[in-house]
Design brief:
This protein is mostly helical. It has two domains: about 120 residues; about 120 residues, no CATH class. The protein contains nine helices and no strands. Helix 1 runs antiparallel to helix 2 and helix 7 runs antiparallel to helix 8.
Length: about 280
């Protein structure tokens, strides 16, 4: 199930309605592709598709009926929740692997690698994961069909530039709140707003140019890594893996605190240079 390419964009020669319906069709094609052999990759690609559909829903918010929007959002949340356990395990594995590369202590390195491999085994042994993925795919397909049916009946559509400007303002507002309080929840909201802005920019990539797309992509990547660190810290504090000594767990938590501070600093620098022209 390959990810949607940069062709996820409105074309100059089409109306907003035509572009919206075409992009929905493109996402449906991707949702119908067979899952990859690697479970974690399939989950990742499905999550990307869900986020793309959410981006389209947000764009069409002034046009689509409120009830239909809420129904679609609820269905997409359900699909995301089905994939959350596998996503968290993949994050745990990835971050532990990075930590193993950072430590110079051979014993710590071996322990971290062992725990990372243990996450692989847990993914492989989870029989429910394949079923959850199939359920999420079915929900996504159903949601796309419903949105497409309603969209084809609408004639009035929002201005792409107006929606893009609103997404940019929302990201700036989330940024100010996150940097003022420096709480994980605020950083997570900032990340979601930055991700939404990225998808809006990609849909209208002929308007702002590629430079800001790259900047926002880097920003949401740093904020995503920050959120991943929070997820792993929470799992280590509440449910430490059986084969991880408490000393190593505390070491990981402290290291992740330092990592979050570095990522916060980088995100602040990147955000300072964002400008929608």
């Amino acid at each position: 199930m390959p990810s949607v390419s940069s062709s996820f964009a409105f074309l100059p020669e089409e109306t907003v309605k035509q572009g919206f319906v075409r992009l929905l069709g493109q996402l449906m094609v991707e949702a119908r592709r067979p899952p990859d052999e690697t479970a974690s990759e399939s989950v990742h690609e499905m999550r990307v598709l869900i986020k793309r559909v959410r981006a389209l829903l947000w764009f069409a918010n002034p046009t689509l009926p409120a009830l239909k929007l809420e129904q679609a959002k609820s269905q997409l949340r359900k699909a995301s929740h089905l994939l959350a356990p596998q996503r968290d395990l993949a994050v745990m594995k990835s971050v532990l692997k990075k930590l193993s590369h950072k430590t110079s202590n051979l014993s710590d390195k071996k322990t971290l690698i062992a725990v990372s491999q243990n996450q692989d085994q847990r993914q492989a042994d989870n029989k429910k994961s394949a079923q959850s993925l199939q359920k999420a795919i079915a929900i996504l397909r159903k949601t796309i069909k419903q949105i497409e049916h309603v969209a084809k009946t609408k004639s009035q559509w929002p201005s792409p530039s107006a929606r893009l400007a609103k997404a940019f303002r929302a990201t700036q507002k989330a940024e100010r709140k996150a940097l003022r309080h420096e709480e994980p929840a605020q950083f997570h909201d900032w990340r979601k707003k930055a991700k939404r802005l990225l998808y809006q920019l990609q849909m209208m990539q002929t308007v702002p140019g590629k430079r800001i797309i790259k900047q926002v992509d880097k920003l949401q990547e740093k904020l995503g890594n920050y959120h991943d660190s929070v997820i792993v810290q929470d799992r280590l504090k509440r449910n430490c893996p059986d084969n991880m000594p408490q000393l190593i767990a505390r070491y990981c938590v402290k290291f992740l605190d330092k990592r979050k501070k570095r990522l916060c600093k980088k995100a602040r620098t990147l955000a300072r240079h964002l400008e929608l022209k």
